[in-house]
Amino acid sequence: MKKIFTFIAVAFCAMSINAQELTTVPVEDNALGDGSCPAGTVLADNEYFTATTVYAATTGSSNYTYSGGYEFTNWIQLRISADPNAENPNGTENSGCTSVVITAKKDCSLSAFVRTGNNKKCNLFNQKDFTALEATTAYEEDGSNYRWTWTWNIEAGNTYVLTERGGTGRLSGFGYTSNGTGTGIQNVAAEKTTVDTPAYNLAGQKINDSFKGIAVKNGKKVVVK
Questions:
Q1: Alpha-carbon gap, residue 163 to 101, rounded angstroms
Q2: Is the pTM of this model over 0.90?
Q3: Nearest-angstrom CA–CA distance, 201 and 213
Q4: What are the residues whose beta carbons fall under 8 Å from the beta carbon of 199, sequence distance 6 or more?
Q5: Low-confidence residues of the chain: pLDDT under 50
């Protein structure tokens, strides 16, 4: 009976973890300035990551609702002319736009909410080797544009560069979940239960406390004295 209740407790704990919702981080008014913001502007800073602009960029306000009902008001223009590489680790500047450096403090899944063309793509490059991370996507149609949600898993201690090429995106904000995937169970510790496992003699007969000699317990031979 005790094991049953332990299993139920673990199951409820798992359900609670799965029910964890995305925490959104909008681009706030005080980060945007009057129609533009300078290079080095901190767009987000929390216990999981910091997001900082690389170049001066145009900003504005529009009410956008993304998949899942996430609403944002402000935006900053996201675009570069060339992808990050060893010579230009943050990508090369495109007038009025910026890339964004993401410094990961804890493992998490990171989402970027960006309104851009329906055939455009945002990338998150790991600055260790300048490879683009695999992303999952969701979108809401918006005329010739989509309101995209791009999501990647990031690791503590790494820095990344958020970019867009081929179109100018409006970065509305970020989101994160602490388990690194957005769904699923990470480490759920169940209570250990001690069970008195029976032992048997070599003939397969269950033995009692008076038995002396070689016995089998938990699939292993033991000497009972």
A1: 9
A2: no
A3: 8
A4: 206, 207, 211, 215, 216, 217, 222, 224
A5: 1-19, 180-195
